[in-house]
Design goal:
This protein is mainly alpha-helical. Helix content is about 50%, strand content about 10%. The longest helix has 24 residues. One of its GO terms (molecular function) is DNA binding.
Amino acid sequence: MLNLPVYLRNSSYYFHTRIHGKQIKRSLHTADRQVAIIRACKLLEGIQMSIDLNNIKKYELDLSRGIAKSDGPEDHQRLMEAMAFLRESQNQSQKQPPVLESTVKLASSSTKSLTLLELLDKYFLLKKVKPATILAHKNTVKEFETFFKLKCYISEIQVGDITRFQEFLAGKGNVPRTIDGKIGYIKALLNFAIKQGYLLNQKNPAENMSLMTKRQKLSDGYLIFEAEEIKQIFTSEYYKEQKQSDPDYYYVLLLGLITGCRISEITTLTKSQFQISEKYTYMVVIRDSKTSAGKREVPLPHQFFDEDFKKFVSSKEDFIFKYVSRVGKGSGNAVGKKIARHLAELKINRGKLVFHSLRKFLNDYFMKNEVAYEPRCQFFGHEIESVNVATYSNKFSVDRLGEIVIQQQLKLLRMTKIIPEYENFIKIPQSE
């Protein structure tokens, strides 16, 4: 009989013995003793041994009558070890429920979970995401796997790994907002893994790991343009020159000012999204947005559709702006860089002023000019937070919404000298 020397080292059991003078040492990849014993037995079965059957020592062991016989003191010692091992196994079996074969398979398969990159492929297969989001997820996963160094199995990711990744990113110069964004991608992937059953009985290690509170994110967010800065931007020679040299940038910025649409909503516009209602209200129809409230009809003053804009649009096939073809980047990436150069040219360097600051400015401008909360929410595609308003109010028609906001849009076009001053008082013709 062969003794089974199975012992625990750190968090895993090992099998260590000597057969025919050759030392054998193997990790059994489990912290459960009974699973370790089963695996040790299977390991022995797999070892090819040439045994001299004429030289086998035989024991006589009858536990019911208390008889134990062996050949010599050395064999007697081995017999005692075998009996001790047998007693220990019986004690363990009384303390723990029997290990089923399925349990052994589960313990074995847990070490063969998906890698983070494999999980990402499954995520993209089942989720509808935009190209820019795909790129951001891929870059974050590759960065995390490079940091992890070993093959990154999702079942092995611990809270400590997320913490060390945050420290790694901070060491590379990433600010807390950027770090939270990247950890957010990891958290979303692991939540998907838990929901789809790729991770069993495990909490998300990236949960509650944000560095910034909601209040900090709001206070540290993008600033709002002031009225004087808006005048400076849109009346500058730099901006006027763009109408000829870069009309895409010129009209994207102008639409940002009077519609407050997000940069991705504007740069992906197609011809078919510019429409006129039955009552002759000009509008742009936003069909794809972050939320259901974001899918909306945004009224526009008809003065925006001058001959220059019509000529610009007529030269396009489907998408109006060139930025949408920039695969691998967000469609607004180039606009964001150019507005930064534009502001630098005008020496406007007051904190975090970006394209999104136009949206914030217009919302603030409407509020100061007494445009009510409900039409503002519908215009900008904001979710209405008040339960009473959200439940009992009706949606404005695009014509009614136009009556509320178009005069304010015209005031802005006059203030920035995009249209002559008298244009502010031209009424849009209405059908009978």
